[in-house]
């Protein structure tokens, strides 16, 4: 097997403390040569925490946009409703499919890491599928914007179209960020240096993008 | 000894090998902390010079300021600034000070340098994001300052950039076109920088603590930075969309903030139906927590400095932490008190007034813990502890005026007067600055390897302390007699008698500002020629004092401390003196130790 993947990674380097009388200016530090590897751990890998921090920030950001939409809609009578481009529903299916393919991929990579099923010669295959579906989603969003433009609805035409473009564009930007994250996972996988926590973080982010899109779709459907 | 220490999962980068990787695009949190400090220093000096210019104009309206016409062609013909240029300087003063000084210095600068060391980590978990955090913030500063030299100058809308003025374009006056776009772009970049920073701060605190460093064993400064990063995460992720919407109103012709039919200079603006109050909601949801983002690190720094110099722990570390947490949570529930005169429903005003009064409770508890802890202690008087005491004084003085402003009935009279300006300058401006100074005098030896000059430090303190009161106490008197803020000249009959007060304030501001040059000299001179600092000059206990001065690139020289004690074990008898360091396994009997 050509590829080898490091398992979860956070088996860190552990060191023994000194006896408290090291004579190093009372610093009582652990000697550098006291390294030993232990299986135990007492804190989660930073990427596991970081992804929740990132998702929280994105949630706050879209909460702000949502508040702005509601306040702006209620502040004036110039709000003009329009029909959402039908391609959005197709795009929703793409994003849903990408989440499924990512889960298949994660399952296979996990099995690959734990060497239970070594038959998966190329564990990255489904990640490429996810990547492709994600790109297709962004392309689909572009098609939706084109359809709106064809109807004469531009960014500044009406506050409703303004919010449509802003929300979908900011979401698409975040999806592109997710694609960058998946590309990073593929690169680490090919270099045999992928951490389980990195894969999990990327997956959480991607699924969150899907959930966020469902939320936006419902919001836009209700408010536009 | 069977206890083991685990290496934190950070510092995946090796030691820097080139000048660029060591001093410019460094991944080392300590270098990034110093870069933030340097940025804050440049920003503070810029902001101070702007305040000087404004104060000279307020004291002597027709006085020509030599050289000013060289910076701006139309803003100061013959060196006498126009009302518009006064507002432009005022806007930039506020923006620079709030964002690039009060946020970057106590939080990003000291936090970056010391948080990883205080938890025992080698670095932040995401050093590249950390580096990006600084450089994006730096870019934000460059973008902001560029507005002085581009178009018709910087925006004049105040640091709060109220709508619709922020979105009407050049019809609103000089700087309201390109100036606002640059302002919003700068602040959007700043938000991204601080979000990246918050990500690192939170994960460092939660995930990279060494063996034995439970959350309750974190020093108060680390707690303050952690709480601040949580606030920053929530606040900046709301300001960022607000800035995006403002930029779109300018460059894409959208109508988020400009109402329909708005006429300026006999021109009907093309926007339709925007909500002017929407901006206030979005801005103040960020804006009020921002006040606490500026001050909470100061609470932590001052507590840390005071404890070290009192040689005894605070009455209750736990309550102090809870109070800082309560301030953070409550700070999101009070923002409407900035909008009492916006036409909000009186019931809403009451709903915002109540938590505003409630938030004074944790703040008061913090002050009482400080005061009662200080009572009976033999405080070591030095520059750091003097500035810590000065912080308490400013925080209390500025906080007391907050009681009045928290009540809608009184605020309606005092709103937009110098009373408000005096209030926030004392409670978040000067107090936070004193926190920065206390931190600087305290941690400079660890950051630079050299001691600062103590005599100059004390002179700096007394001039700053007396000077700050001379400047900002009269602001309150001015506000109470109805002196409206943002006026560049005082031509109304009821304002004319107040001009001598303004002249007094100007003189005090010039002297107090000049006193900061003593600090600057002390900082630069000590950096190169100061007395070499020992590893632990203050006989302090937290982990940063356990390592070499200045710390090596990986903080502990390839070693990892084990934490055995609570952060502030003073007043004990150990082999080194009246304290025991967190990383010392020496057993001492103390009622405060958790073990």
Write the layout of secondary structure elements.
The complex is a heterodimer of chains A (224) and B (595).
Chain A: E1 13-15, E2 35-37, H1 46-75, H2 87-113, H3 125-150, H4 159-190, H5 196-223
Antiparallel strand pairs in A: 1-2
Helix pairs in contact in A: 1-4, 1-5, 2-3, 2-5, 3-4, 4-5
Chain B: E1 5-6, H1 19-24, H2 29-59, H3 68-71, H4 83-119, H5 127-146, H6 178-207, H7 220-251, E2 263-264, E3 267-268, H8 276-310, H9 317-330, H10 346-358, H11 360-374, H12 383-405, H13 408-414, H14 418-448, H15 454-480, H16 499-529, E4 569-570, E5 579-580
Antiparallel strand pairs in B: 2-3, 4-5
What does this structure look like?
- The complex is a heterodimer of chains A (224) and B (595).
- The N and C termini of chain A lie far apart (54 Å).
- The longest helix of chain A has 32 residues, at 159-190.
- A two-stranded antiparallel ribbon of chain A has the order 1-2.
- Chain A has a single domain (46-223), classed as Cytochrome c oxidase, subunit III, four-helix bundle (Four Helix Bundle (Hemerythrin (Met), subunit A)), CATH 1.20.120.
- Chain A has 5 helices and 2 strands.
- Residues 1-41 of chain A have low confidence and may be disordered.
- Chain A has 224 residues and is mainly α.
- Chain B is an all-alpha fold and 595 residues long.
- Chain B has a domain at 21-120 and 152-161 and 164-212.
- Chain B has 16 helices and 5 strands.
- Chain B has helices at 19-24, 29-59, 68-71, 83-119, 127-146, 178-207, 220-251, 276-310, 317-330, 346-358, 360-374, 383-405, 408-414, 418-448, 454-480, 499-529; strands at 5-6, 263-264, 267-268, 569-570, 579-580.
- A two-stranded antiparallel sheet of chain B has the order 2-3. Chain B has a two-stranded antiparallel sheet with strand order 4-5.
- In chain B, helix 4 runs parallel beside helix 6 and helix 12 runs antiparallel to helix 14.
- The longest helix of chain B has 37 residues, at 83-119.
- The two termini of chain B are 15 Å apart.
- Mean pLDDT of chain B is 93; it is low at 1-11.
- Classes of the chains: A mainly alpha (224), B mainly alpha (595).
- Chains A and B meet through strand 1, helix 1 and helix 4 of A and strand 1, helix 6, helix 7 and helix 8 of B.
- Strand 1 (13-15) of chain A pairs antiparallel with strand 1 of chain B, so a sheet runs across the interface.
């Amino acid at each position: 097997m050509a590829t080898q993947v490091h398992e979860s990674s956070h088996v860190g380097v552990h060191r023994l403390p000194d006896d408290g009388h090291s004579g190093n200016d009372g610093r009582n530090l652990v000697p550098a040569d006291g390294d030993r590897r232990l299986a135990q751990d007492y804190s989660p890998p930073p990427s596991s925490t970081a992804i929740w921090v990132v998702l929280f920030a994105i949630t706050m950001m879209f909460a702000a946009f949502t508040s702005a939409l509601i306040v702006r809609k209620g502040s004036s009578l110039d709000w003009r409703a329009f029909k959402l481009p039908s391609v959005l529903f197709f795009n929703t299916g793409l994003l849903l499919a990408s989440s499924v393919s990512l889960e298949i991929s994660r399952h296979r990579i996990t099995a690959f890491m734990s060497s239970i099923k070594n038959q998966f010669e190329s564990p990255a295959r489904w990640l490429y599928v996810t990547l492709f579906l994600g790109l297709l989603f962004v392309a689909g969003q572009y098609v939706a914007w084109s359809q709106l433009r064809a109807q004469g609805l531009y960014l500044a035409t009406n506050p409703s179209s303004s919010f449509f473009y802003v929300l979908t564009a900011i979401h698409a930007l975040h999806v592109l960020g997710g694609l960058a994250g998946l590309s990073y996972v593929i690169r680490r996988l090919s270099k045999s240096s992928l951490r389980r926590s990195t894969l999990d973080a990327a997956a959480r982010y991607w699924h969150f993008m899907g959930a966020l899109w469902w939320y936006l779709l419902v919001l836009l459907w209700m408010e536009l | 000894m069977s206890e083991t220490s685990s290496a934190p999962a950070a510092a995946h980068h090796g030691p820097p090998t080139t000048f660029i990787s060591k001093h410019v695009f460094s991944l080392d949190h300590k270098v990034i902390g110093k870069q933030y400090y340097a940025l804050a220093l440049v920003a503070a000096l810029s902001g101070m010079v702007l305040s000087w210019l404004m104060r000279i104009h307020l004291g002597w309206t027709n006085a020509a300021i030599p050289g000013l016409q060289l910076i701006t062609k139309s803003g100061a013909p013959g060196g006498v600034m126009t009302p518009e240029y006064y507002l432009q300087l005022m806007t930039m003063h506020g923006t620079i000070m709030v964002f690039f000084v009060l946020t970057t210095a106590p939080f990003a600068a000291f936090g970056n340098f010391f948080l990883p060391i205080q938890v025992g980590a080698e670095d932040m978990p995401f050093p590249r994001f950390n580096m990006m955090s600084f450089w994006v913030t730096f870019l934000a500063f460059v973008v902001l300052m560029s507005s002085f030299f581009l178009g018709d100058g910087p925006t004049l809308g105040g640091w709060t950039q109220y709508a619709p003025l922020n979105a009407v374009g050049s019809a609103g006056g000089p700087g309201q076109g390109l100036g606002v776009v640059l302002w919003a772009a700068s602040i959007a970049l700043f938000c991204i920088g601080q979000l990246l920073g918050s990500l690192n701060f939170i994960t460092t605190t939660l995930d990279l603590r060494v063996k034995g460093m439970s959350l309750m064993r974190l020093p108060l400064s680390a707690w303050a930075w952690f709480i601040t990063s949580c606030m920053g995460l929530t606040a900046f992720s709301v300001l960022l969309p607000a800035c995006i919407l403002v930029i779109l109103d300018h460059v894409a012709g959208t109508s988020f903030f400009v109402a329909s039919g708005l006429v300026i200079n006999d021109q009907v603006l093309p926007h339709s139906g925007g909500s002017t109050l929407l901006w206030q909601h979005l801005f103040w949801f960020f804006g009020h927590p921002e006040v606490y983002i500026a001050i909470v690190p100061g609470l932590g720094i001052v507590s840390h400095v005071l404890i070290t110099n009192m040689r005894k722990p605070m009455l209750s570390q736990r309550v102090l932490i809870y109070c800082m947490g309560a301030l953070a949570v409550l700070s999101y529930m009070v923002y409407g008190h900035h909008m009492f005169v916006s036409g909000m429903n009186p019931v809403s005003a009451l709903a915002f007034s109540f938590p505003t009064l409630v938030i004074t409770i944790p703040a008061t508890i913090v002050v009482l813990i400080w005061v009662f802890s200080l009572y009976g202690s033999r405080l070591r008087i030095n520059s750091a502890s003097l500035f810590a005491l000065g912080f308490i004084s400013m925080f209390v003085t500025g906080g007391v005026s907050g009681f009045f402003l928290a009540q809608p009935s009184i605020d309606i009279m005092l709103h937009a007067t110098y009373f408000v300006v005096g209030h926030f300058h004392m409670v978040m401006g000067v107090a936070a600055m004193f926190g920065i100074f206390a931190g600087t005098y305290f941690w400079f030896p660890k950051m630079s390897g050299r001691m600062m000059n103590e005599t100059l430090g004390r002179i700096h303190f007394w001039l700053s302390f007396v000077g700050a009161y001379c400047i900002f106490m009269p602001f309150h008197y001015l506000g109470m007699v109805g002196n409206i803020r943002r006026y560049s000249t005082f031509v109304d009959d009821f304002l004319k008698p107040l001009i001598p007060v303004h002249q007094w304030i100007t003189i005090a501001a010039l002297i107090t500002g000049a006193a900061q040059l003593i600090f600057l000299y002390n900082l630069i001179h000590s950096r190169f020629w100061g007395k070499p600092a020992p590893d632990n000059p203050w006989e302090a206990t937290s982990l940063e004092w356990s390592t070499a001065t200045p710390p090596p690139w990986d903080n502990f020289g390839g070693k990892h401390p084990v934490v055995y004690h609570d952060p502030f074990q003073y007043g004990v008898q150990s082999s080194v003196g009246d304290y025991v360091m967190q990383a010392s396994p020496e057993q001492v009997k103390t009622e405060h130790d958790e073990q």
